[in-house]
Structure formats: structure tokens, C-alpha cells
Design a protein that fits this description.
There is one protein chain. The chain is mainly alpha-helical. Helix 2 packs antiparallel against helix 5, helix 6 packs across helix 10 and helix 9 runs antiparallel to helix 10. The protein is globular and about 50 Å long. The relative contact order is 0.13.
Length: about 220
């Protein structure tokens, strides 16, 4: 059985399975970043901050900074620093991505991943630009696939809201309620001041997923 699963995995990679390609890109970037952090640690240099404020792969709330590194609009969607952050996003992406691809053309996952992540960044940037409380007089960064994953989760929930999933393999829940729960948790987490930008980004991804799901249901 183990051999069959491995063969299936390699077959999917060889055939260019879009979900596997997204996962592999995330994994490769994570490994490179961890090696970079290890090099900095061993050499005694200052390592990048936990949320990537001085990492050029991270997207920034400042338009001036983004004009100097426009590639970060895409690269921030594939970069993780914290192992827990990476692992949670990849598990959610794999489980929900497989379900998403049974509902629409498999290659559409790239569209939702990228545009959902960019939508998350745009809401993050606009929110920080319009709030002195959030920006606290300085630019902030956003990093990770969470907004893109939220877009996929929400789109899947809109397309098949009554689909049953098992949260942590224990809690039986309809997809619609899972998406609502995640959105409410993000809303409630903004004001705690810990990764407020990330939670706002999640909501931006969810909004794109909502729009995409509604368009699919309408036959567009």
C-alpha cells in the first residue's frame, strides 16, 4: 500500500498536478529560507524577523517599498518562516485543494490561489494605509500562503456548502460553517494586535473566494 501511494504521488508530480506544483514550490522556498536562517544563525548575523519585515520576499504595506520590490506581490504567497505556519497552511491547502479540484477544472486552483492571495494583500494594504491604529506610523509586511488558502477554502464552501468535512478528524462540520468559523476567528483576532495584518489578509482572500464561488454557482 505504501508503494502504491508513493507511485501515485510521483505520478501526480510527473503529470504536472497543479496542487502538487503549488505545494512543491512552497516546500522548496521554505527549505531555502530555513537554510538561509541557519546560515545567519551559525555566522552570528542578525536573522530575519519572525514575520519577514526585512525579507524582500514579503509584501509590504508601503507602496513606495512595493515599487522597489514588485516581485513580492507574488513571492509572499509562497514564503513561510515559522515551521508551524508552513505546516498548517500546507495541510489546509492539500486537504481543501483536493476537494476544490473535484468541483472545478483542476488548473483553476492556480487562479484562485494567486488572485485570492493578491486580494488578501490589497485589503491588507488598504487597511493599513487608512488606519493610524494599524500602521502605528510605520510600514508592515505580510508573508505566507494563508490568504490564498482562505480563498480556496471559501470558494469550496460556497460551491458545495453542505459538503461534510471533519475538523481535526474529529468534529463533523458542513463546509459553509467551517468557512464562517474561520472568518469570524480572523475578525476577532484583528484587534489583539498580533499579526493583525495577516488576519486582514485572510479576510481579503475569503472575499475573493466568496466572489469566485458565487460566480461558479451562477455558471460563469
Amino acid at each position: 500500500m505504501i508503494i502504491e501511494r508513493h507511485n501515485s504521488l510521483f505520478t501526480r508530480i510527473r503529470k504536472g498536478d497543479p496542487l502538487m506544483m503549488i505545494l512543491i514550490i512552497n516546500l522548496l522556498v521554505f527549505v531555502v529560507l530555513q537554510l538561509h536562517l541557519l546560515k545567519l544563525y551559525v555566522s552570528g548575523e542578525i536573522a530575519v524577523l519572525p514575520w519577514g519585515e526585512d525579507l524582500t520576499l514579503a509584501a509590504n504595506s508601503s507602496l513606495q517599498v512595493m515599487l522597489k520590490r514588485p516581485w513580492s506581490l507574488i513571492t509572499h504567497l509562497f514564503a513561510h518562516i515559522q515551521p508551524g505556519h508552513f505546516l498548517f497552511n500546507m495541510i489546509a491547502l492539500y486537504s481543501m485543494g483536493k476537494l476544490f479540484m473535484t468541483m472545478v477544472l483542476p488548473k483553476k486552483i492556480w487562479l484562485v490561489y494567486l488572485l485570492g492571495g493578491i486580494s488578501g494583500y490589497l485589503l491588507f494594504m488598504l487597511s493599513f494605509a487608512g488606519s493610524n491604529v494599524l500602521n502605528a506610523g510605520r510600514a508592515h509586511s505580510i508573508l505566507g500562503a494563508s490568504s490564498a488558502v482562505m480563498a480556496i477554502v471559501t470558494a469550496t464552501a460556497i460551491i458545495q456548502p453542505r459538503r461534510i468535512v471533519y475538523l481535526f478528524n474529529a468534529v463533523r462540520m458542513e463546509l459553509a460553517w467551517l468557512a464562517i468559523l474561520l472568518a469570524v476567528l480572523d475578525l476577532a483576532s484583528i484587534r489583539n494586535g498580533i499579526n493583525s495584518g495577516g488576519h486582514i489578509g485572510h479576510l481579503g482572500g475569503a472575499l475573493f473566494g466568496l466572489l469566485y464561488g458565487l460566480l461558479v454557482r451562477a455558471g460563469i
